[in-house]
Each structure stands twice: as structure tokens, then as C-alpha cells.
Amino acid sequence: MESQEVMTLLSESNETPLSARQSPDDEDHPKEKCGVFGIWGDGDASRKTALGLHALQHRGQEAAGIVSFDGRRFHAHRDMGQVSAIFGKEEVMIGLKGKGAIGHVRYSTTGGTAQRNIQPLFAELAIGGFCLAHNGNLTNAASVRDRLVEKGAIFQSTADTEVIVHLIARQHGKTMVERLMAALLQVEGAYSLVCMGNDCVIGVRDPLGVRPLVLGKHGKSYIVTSETCALDILGAEFIRDVEPGEAIVLNEEGLTSIKPFPASPHRFCVFEYIYFARPDSCLGNRSVYAARKQIGMELSRESPVAADAVIPVPDSGVPAALGYSEESGISFELGIIRNHYVGRTFIEPAQRIRDFGVKLKHNANRAIIEGRRVILVDDSIVRGTTSVKIVQMVRAAGAREVHMRIASPPTVYSCFYGIDTPERSELLASRMSEAQMAQYIGADSLAFISIDGLYRAMGLHGRNNLHPQFCDACLTGDYPIKLSDRNARRNQNTPDGQLSLLSEFA
User: Could you give the CA distance from residue 454 to residue 451 in angstroms, rounded to a whole number?
Assistant: First the structure.
């Protein structure tokens, strides 16, 4: 792909804001933290990184950054906003020289949005420059940080990612790869990392493989990135998923695979299939779209109801609604239309604007809904606020009955592995029964897919409670990685809501 084509694609994308489904204001869905991309050995490395990040924009909309390396110097550009606005300018891309580059899109959390937290982070170390982009969350970052500060470390950000940088600086390996591996043996948590030193790009996935990372190739250049959709935008070849506990080193010699961690059961985040990943991505040898459609089919088998139309809550409910419709034989209809031109900037300034509620983003298609019994299919319910507004809107459009079907089990627990979910007390399913939730949102009936049904949709017989194959902690409370910092806070009688700076996820 030529440089001018890249700039044209990015500049044109400025004219069409992304779907508001990805907006951080969409409060009734959990939020993914970020997406990462890295490429080595390509003369257009930074431009292709920008396009890759554009494809990953759904994984973080508040900030983005790229660091490139030209063989002598590192070049960086990081800013608040969306990828197309930040990197759709030729003067910016000209400055990002080199055949190696890594990039990051970010969604900030409780700790707040700040320029200093935008990734990739960069540091000059004893053996050369090093930059790092991180998707996930370190569950022992606070204790490690405290120990480092006591020894004189000075932190420039509130992101847990910087803990890794400081640990690398204190290792004594001969190469950057050796130092990184030694540092990662000291941290706990869920992570996919893309790093770059003077002579390589490194992609690493945590031992349980909670967060996604895939490997691709474009021409003679290898790529590591969060999802296959970032390869598709470049016309790159998808090779395979980076394995849990694997480090991929990309350099002038090509590709090297390292497995520095003890073998562990794989626990990929099941919510990537339910909601986070783009439906056109393929993760863990599964099509995300096909998985969502199968979830809808299983949901129909588990929770049938007499109705005249199956209506998705767009956009994330569409594949599951298609599956529900196909299995049930009930007509699939676009009874709710999504306004794709509403973004954070428009909604944010005043509460009186927000008070228009869900109609900023959705509008009922009265011609489809009036006088009919409808089944609304959505991917999840977190606080329940959006579901209340959707049901009210559909009733106001003349629906005779409104039945809600949810393509995930109830979200009962908070996530601490790189997904922004509220404290448990704010989760609707943690304090209400299914019948109470149905009454709260105003639906004639409400049903969630069961945890076994979710696993069946993934091609398994059900959840093996002794050896589950996914991380489903937000659904079951089964946390596969120690929550060291959180447990320490509880032992100190620190309220869960009183979070330290280290609650700022990557």
C-alpha cells in the first residue's frame, strides 16, 4: 500500500465518525482498555501502524500513540482523540520515520485521562531505547510500584504499564529480550504487550492468554497486533494467534518464538467473543461473528418466547439476533436504527444534552414495531440504564409485548484483567434476580444465556468447572489470576471504591 493511499484513507475517515457503540459514554456495556500494533522491517511502518490502529479503534477511543525507530533515533507522536484525527495529517506521519513502529489506542479509566498516560511509553535504558504498549492489567502493580519507589524509582505516569519499564531497567540481561522476560516473571496479571528496542519488535502474551494477540505478515514484514481486523485493513496475511505465554521477536533475521513461562491452562477472555472484538476478527481459531451467531442460536433454544419479530439492539446485538431469528424461525427486523454520527464530543458538554437519553444514539422504527410482539436481543446488561431506555422507547413506538434476551450470562462480578467494569454494587445482576431485573427494565420477560449454554455455543459440552477453558470471572467470580493488590487493600480495610493511582489500567 502506497503512503498516499494510507493518508487518504485516514483523512477520509475523519469525515465519518465511528459508531457510537464504541463511545465511552455507552455506559451499559463494559469497556475494553486498548489495542496494540507492532511491525518491523517495513519502510512505511508508522503509516501501516496508523491504519492498524484505525481498525482497532473500537478497543479505545480517548487517545492514541505511535513510536517509530529509524535505526538511530526513536520518534514519537501521542495525543488525545481518535486515530484518524491524530494521524490523518501528513506533517505528523513524515516525522515518524523508520522501518519499525508500535502503536496503541487507549480508553482511560478511573484514574482519569492524562497526556502522560498515553502509550506507547518510552524510556532510555542502559542498553538503548525501549518503548512499550500494553493491553490488560497487572494485578500486583501497586505492590511492585511501592517497592520500586522505595528504591528510588521516579514514575512519570499513573499507568501500571510503567511498572514493567522500571523492572526492565533494573535487570542485567545482555539483550532487551532477556531483560523483558526477567521483568515479566515479577508481575502478575493479564496482558498482551508490544514492545520495541533498537533492533527488534517484541510481542508477548500472558501465560493464561487472557488478552488477545495475533501474528501476521505483510510482504517481508511481520506484525503483532490485538485482532485480525488490523491485518485485514493492510491486506496482510494472518499466520496464527500468539500462544499464551509466548514471546514473538521480530528483527532483521525474521521471527523467533520464545516460551519463557511455565505452561498454564489457557483462559482467553470469553467477552472478546461476546462483545469486545470486532465481528470480522478471528481469535482463537474462531470467527467472532460466527461465535456471536451461535450464542444467539443457543439463547433461542434455551429461552424461546412467542413473538412476531426479533430485533437487535444495534450494533453489538446484531449477530446474536440473527442467530436467535434463524433458530426460532421468527423474522429478523431492524426495529431500532442506530445513529452512527453521535460521539463523545457531542454528548459530553452538558447534562441537559445527555438527558435526551438513548434517542441520541437509537431511534425506534415504528413501522416495524407498532402492534407487534418483539424480542430485543442485546449482548449484555451492566448497570441496566440503557436497557431501561431501550424498552421504554420500543413501548412508546407501539410494541404490544417486549421481551429482552441477553447473549451473555448475567454480569455479576467486576473484571480486574483489563476491562473497565463498575464496582460489583453497581452491577444490576449482582443485586437483583432475573425477575426483578425484568421488572426494573420494564420488559414482559428477560432471559440470559446460561453459562453452560455460552460454552456450548463455543463448541464445548458446557463449562468444566474444574478446568474452564475461558476467563469468565465477570460471570462466575472464578478469577484465574491472583488479585494481589485488591486482596491487600481488603486486608488493610480499604474500601473497594477507594482506588489508588494504580487502578489506572493500561
Answer: 5
Rounded CA gap, 237 and 219, in Å?
A: 9
Per-residue pLDDT tens for 99-158?
A: 999 999 998 543 445 788 899 999 999 999 999 999 999 999 999 999 999 999 899 888
Residues 211 and 291 in one domain: no
Determine the distance from the C-alpha atom of residue 319 to the mean position of all C-alpha atoms in its chain, rounded to a whole number: 18
**How confident is the model at residue 361, as a pLDDT?**
82
Shared domain check, 198 and 344: no
Range of the domain at 152: 3-267
> How confident is the model over 298-345, as pLDDT tens digits?
999 999 999 999 999 999 899 999 999 999 999 999 999 988 776 543
**CA-based torsion, 426, 430, 436, 438: positive or negative:** positive
Say yes or no: 261 and 320 in one domain: no
- Count the domains in the chain: 2
235 & 339 share domain = no
**Who's near 125: CB < 8 A, 6+ residues apart?**
168, 169, 176, 179
3 pLDDT more than 60: no
Helix (H) or strand (E) holding 203: strand 201-205
Q: What is the mean pLDDT of the chain?
A: 89
* Whether residue 224 is found in the same domain as residue 186: yes
The residue assigned the cell 512505511 is 44
Q: Which residues are catalytic?
A: 34
CATH number of the structural domain spanning residue 258: 3.60.20.10
- The single-letter code of the amino acid at 176 is M
Q: Report the C-alpha gap between 297 and 332 in whole angstroms.
A: 13
Mean pLDDT in residue range 474-503: 72
Q: Are 467 and 450 in contact (CB under 8 A)?
A: no
Q: What is the model's pTM?
A: 0.89
Handedness of CA 17, 380, 447, 449 (dihedral sign): positive
